[in-house]
Design goal:
The complex is a heterodimer of chains A (about 280) and B (about 270). Chain A is mainly α. Chain A has helices spanning about 1-15, 20-40, 70-110, 110-125, 130-140, 145-170, 175-180, 185-195, 200-220, 235-240, 250-280. By secondary structure, chain B is α/β, with parallel strands linked by helices. Chain B has a 6-stranded mixed β-sheet with strand order 7-8-9-5-10-11, sandwiched between helices. Chain B is globular and about 50 Å long. The chains are: A mainly alpha (about 280), B alpha/beta (about 270).
Amino acid sequence: MRQGTNTLRQRIKELPRPDLFCVGLALTAAVLVLVILGVIFSPFGATTLTPDRLQPPSPGHLMGTDKMGRDVFARVTYGTRITLLVALGTVTIGAGVGTLLGAICGYFGGIVDEIVMRVMDALFAFPNVLLALVFVSLFGSGTFKVMWALGIAFIPSFARVVRGEYIRCKHLDYVKNARLQGVSDLRVIFVHILPNINGVLLSNLLIGFNNAVLSEAALSYLGIGSQPPFDSLGQMVSASQEVFFAAPWTVLGPGLVIIVMVLGFSLMGEGLRSDTEGLE
Amino acid sequence: MSPSTHTMPLGGTYTYNTGTNDSVLDVRSLDVYYHARSKQLFRKAENNQILFDVDFSIAPGEVVGLCGESGSGKTTLSKAICGIIPTFTGSISLAHERPLMIFQNPYNSLNPSKRIGWLLEEPLRVDPARSWSEEERDERVHEVIKQVELPEKLLDRLPKELSGGQRQRVAIAAALMRKPRFIIADEPVSALDVTIQAQVLRLLKSLHEDLGLSILFISHDLRVVYQVCDRVLIMQRGRIVEQGPVRKVYRQPENDYTRQLLEAAGLR
């Protein structure tokens, strides 16, 4: 028996490991293709009402219809677009500002670093969604406001990672050499060091993208974010939960897309991270 | 260019572009301190003195060895000469521009994400003395890559695609880009294989002869110093304990510490 499990284990070990990045890329590409196909080929709009309410999936309605008779597939493709847009905006704001702050704090250090990083720690102490809720309650709801709220909530995680990388890099000989040559501080930060932390930054970007998709779904589920009838995926799940037992496809459709999207991005991020770590 | 003098916080003066022909580097009664950060709250930080009354100069076209065990202050002295340690008293004056350094480990001193051509052009892009047009930069890169005996096809490569010896040649080339008359080499061959060491040393020697380059050659290896240097400074605990022409110091050392170093290197 023992012998058998051992050889089985060995066999599993010897199987070619799939490249995580490629699998992730494939999943993400699948979601994107779904969106494009939906936009081009679906005969229904996201808000087109039909008399067929709560129909199960059929060739006519690939993912069935919801309680108002709208085609779930068409709504999912539209919702995916909103979710992707919000996630992209969130990561752009979070990574952009976070990288800038982290780079400056890490490279220069000193009192500015202390102040900025303590503020970041304070922000970091709250969960992203909670923090976003605070911003939304201050500035109001809506797709773009949620994007900003989540973006600000995402700044500290990027700032921390980037700061750590700059602290590591600034003592390396190539940086000292550049400074001896008379390269200005800003040029050292952005031209000399930044390309060397690309790998770390990119894997964090993808993981951040993931968290953004999930946070947006969570916020939408709470009823904050994009406004009906143009729902994001999270909002569709939220709106359909009362008919979950009668028509599970209304929840499973958008839910599945969220899962595949998040899985795709995490695998890509994980693959990149193991690649860059393997290099060092 | 007109001389520029900087007076440092502790009263030391750092001057470059003096234009004098007597020496490329003149260090007079140099004391260097490191500002130790106070570990205890409410306790004033103290200055740790690293170098004591260092006094020497380097003539044009001279290769000077700087020897001593680790912790004797060799690297601190080289940093002070580059002008990156402001906490000193005494004076440092350079006939020309601030010197560039060749570091010990070429695996760390070249930016891993940049191509060799880019790395060589960078000192010209940020040259404080003049601006270089793109054609001038390109021309100079090709000129220098020949001087360090590297094939031009390496210009498109990344540092990780080069061997250790090639990388150190690139580092030397980068230091030569602005046509300096004085450079500092901080243990330039210590991280290399013995055969590669000989090649790089030969290159430094020929550059010194062809270009009339002055070099401050820092090394803990007295054998290497004997091969390339005209004159040698022996440092111990922050002081220069002996200096003189290499042959004289190696044959008739006057200082006990020098004798110890020579014995440890098997040269006596």
